Amino acid sequence: MNIFTKNNDEFQYFLTDIKNIITDITPLAKKEDISGLQKLITNFKIKTDDFYHENRKLNIGVVGQVKAGKSSFLNTLLFDGQEILPKASTPKTATLTKMEYSEENIIQIEYYSIEEWEVLEENARVDLDDEIYSSAREIVDMVRRNGLNPKPYLEMGTEKKKFDTYDDLISNLNNYVGEDGKFTPIVKAVTLYLNKEEFKGISIVDTPGLNDPIASRTIRTKDFMEVCDVVFFLSQAGSFLDKSDWILLSSQLPQKGVKKLVLIASKYDSGIRDILRVQEDDDIFGNDENTADNIPKACKIIKKKLKKRAKSKIDEFVQDLESRGSSNELIEVIKQCENPLMVSSLAYNMSTKLVSDYNAEEKNIYSALKQFSKDLDSDLKLLGNFDEIKTLFDEVVEEKEQILEKKAKGFIPTAKEELKTMLLAYKEKTNKRIKVLESNDREHLLEQKKSIEGQIGKIKADITAVFGELNAKLESEKSDAVRELREAGKDYLNVKERTGSKTIRTSHRVSDAKWWNPLSWFSSHTEYSSHTEHYSYCIAADAIENLRKYALEASNQVEKVFTDALQIKEVKRKLLNVVISNFDMGSEKYDSSLFRIMVEESVSAIEFPILNLDISATVNKIAGKFNGELTSASKKTALSTALSNAIMEIYDELCNKLVSSVKKFKEELGLIGHKVQDNLLTDISEEFETLLSQFENKEKEIANFKAYAEILDKKIASIR
User: Is the pLDDT of residue 564 over 60?
Assistant: First the structure.
């Protein structure tokens, strides 16, 4: 099989087989069964049509949440650290950016459609705190602040602009995807066509964070993921594989046709700095395996922790996949994440510069790290680890043909597995309907319906009780967290006193006059002397480090309110047990498995909130006000006061976010509870009404179901 043959006979045979199945089952099948098979055909065509086109490129996606460091990663990997791709500081300003080869350097801008913009404007008018509406309000407000009339651009749809140099590219691109770009709020996606040999045969996409609140951009990103071949998945080292990361990695990526998955712990330097400390003569530092007094040792500690977490998460997920009978291919893709790579774009870029060329952020990092290194250039390269990344990336590009061939060979087996699973599900539902009709009569079924409706009432009460218990625990944990946040802040109030020395040089005039020589009476010379003077000082970098560590610890404490303390798995188990126990799995009256899947789906909708804390503005207040060594008592006091105020700001922000998140979460839980209840009652009633109508001609209905099951058996057996 030629993997790049557009009209592949094997594909056509497969599609014909599905169409024949549809034709054969149509007289007996339910409408939803037919539509399921038709959807399978549609999805198969979409994926294969994209694959089999002229000059098919290797699609490489860089994926992760907003602030995972995706743009910095790509700037370092592809542009030698030049900030070509602007950083998106919020989900609102994130834009899908694609890069491909072209003989001409062109920026292609894709604006929102008129319909998409109307949806945004409509959402902006909704006075709710939900991120969907607040993000829409921010985007619409940005347009107004920029004095922009969006209509001509929305009507245009796409626009192309040529550029000659990287400087031209940066200035132009910032207007369309930069945080404060004039056109940023109306841009949905950008494609960079670059006359750069490295881009031949590949298409690289810097995706918005998958926590993107703008629906139309999310759809655009998901469309790309459908045809993505290779994914570099970035997760911040400081919050490695948190809940949002794990939801994305475990539930969205592997099923989209991705054949190679690379897990990267980004912003490695931030994790390192959390455990570095100066060893004192009188402490027991050497016995603490979680701290280090040099960068190489810190790297080993953090790398070990991150790999252990990745292994644990992947093992857990693989076990779940195996229990559900997932394909070996999917499991193998997930297992590729067992050994994550650690990178720091910032550290690597610093290693390629002179200290005099560092920007403000890099200078602060330099001040914080230099005391823990004998050879900082070498340690920065160790932290950066981009030599390994570049080697891996080159290997991926070289393996283009093999990766695409593997993908092509997987189309049919994957689709056949999906088809077989679908037909088996149809058969299982059909056999259950046969069993119900054969073992019951109309009167008995009415009794069952009445009995279950009565049980539903008890289920509602039991579910309400579970949610009430959870709400009470949330309030208790919230109060404890607020108290702990305040106490934790006290540990970071003191700025470390450093010692330095300086040489003081003094001079004085000494007369050269000799009484016997009148000509020398007015001559003199200068004599110099020097001594070493010791002094104490503080630096802003230490205060900023305290601030960052407090923010990290405090954020973790808040997260525990919704994770460790509340144990979401236990909550889900309780809710499921409520339903299962009330349906009485051993009862002959009904088969509770008909409703279990629906309950599981409803309960699985419960997800704890993620609190994103941005301390950059608070940090900048200190970094911008204090520079160099602070030796005077007044400046030290001012720095200490600024740190105290900053910690209080973070405390107040986290407390406010915690209170509002708990409130919002409790409201969401109430909605989920009602959804579980309502869906149960509605679906069960509909199922019984269908069964009751079938009793009007019981024998014929049973014969039709058996004939349908027989056809399904034959079709399942024919899938090889």
Answer: no
370-373 contacts at long range (C-beta below 8 A, 24 or more positions apart): 371/278, 372/276, 372/278, 372/292, 372/293, 372/294, 372/295, 372/298, 373/294, 373/295
Which residues are 111's β-sheet partners?
187
529 has pLDDT over 90 = no
β-bridge partners, 630: 538
590 confidence band (pLDDT: 50, 70, 90): very low
Give, as one character, the DSSP assignment of residue 350.
H
- Angle among Cα 40, 221, 344 to the nearest 5 degrees reads 130
Beta bridge partners of 162: 106
Q: Looking at residue 574, what is its pLDDT?
A: 72
What pLDDT, on the 0 to 100 scale, is given for residue 281? 47
- What distance in Å separates the CA atoms of residue 535 and residue 544, rounded to the nearest whole number? 22
The token duo for 310 is: 């990745």
Mean pLDDT, residues 218-239 taken together: 77
What mean pLDDT is predicted for residues 599-609? 53
At 52, list the tokens.
């089999």
Q: Under a CB-based contact definition with an 8 Å cutoff, are residues 378 and 179 in contact?
A: no
- Each residue of 337-347: b (16+ CB within 10 Å) or e? beebbbbbbbb
Longest Cα separation, the chain: 145
Mean pLDDT rounded to a whole number for the chain: 77
DSSP state string for 272-321: HHTTB-PPPTTS-GGG-TT-BSSHHHHHHHHHHHHHHHHHHHHHHHHHHH
Strand partners, 108: 160, 191
Do the Cβ atoms of 176 and 107 come closer than 8 Å?
Answer: yes
**Which H helix or E strand runs over 537?**
strand 524-539
Domain spans in the chain, listed from the N-terminal domain onward: 57-228, 268-398, 440-497+538-697, 500-536
- For residue 587, the model assigns a pLDDT of 45
Count CB neighbours of 220 within 10 A. Answer: 20
Q: How many residues does the chain have?
A: 720
Collapsed DSSP state (helix, strand, coil) of residue 616: helix
Q: Are 97 and 85 in contact (CB under 8 A)?
A: yes
Report the distance separating Cα 351 and Cα 376, nearest Å: 8
Smallest CA-to-CA distance from 349 within 74, 147, 87 is with 74
Name the band, by pLDDT with cuts 50, 70 and 90, for residue 416: confident
Contact in structure between 501 and 461 (CB atoms under 8 Å): no
Stretch 660-688: mean pLDDT: 66
What is the DSSP secondary structure assignment for residue 27, as one 8-state letter? Answer: T
Instruction: Convert the pLDDT of each residue in 272-301 to its tens digit.
Output: 877 877 665 444 334 556 678 889 988 888
List helix spans (H) across 399-516.
Answer: 400-439, 442-490
Give the C-alpha separation, 703 to 425, whole Å.
19
At 143 the three-state DSSP class reads helix
Helix/strand/coil for 107: strand
